[in-house]
Amino acid sequence: MLIEKKEILNEDGSIGYVEAIFESDNVLKTTYFKQAQRLYIAFNRGGTYSYEYITPELYDEFESAESQGKFFHKHIANNKKYPYRKEFTLYPNEIAETKQIISDHKKEEDDE
To answer: Which of 21, 31, 46, 86 has CB atoms 3.0–4.6 Å from 90's, for a disulfide?
Structure first.
């Protein structure tokens, strides 16, 4: 489930990239570069991978899916159409900060 989304704009007002945080057993957060059609996925243990040729339509479907992990495994993972590579691993404090945002969001929903 999408928890938080930020669209970072270019100088001309177009979307440069999108950052999103998810409540998911598998996917922690993503950064999507529409022009480059490149999706970076940080998984819950911090491993961050990039996937090529991710169209805006596919990204929108991923973002709005009921389960990002299930969508990822069904449509993107191990699909030769979307080459990938490991980019880096998040620091433990980055993982903790993101998980705190998710926890705070859940608490706000419970309070409503």
So the answer is: 46
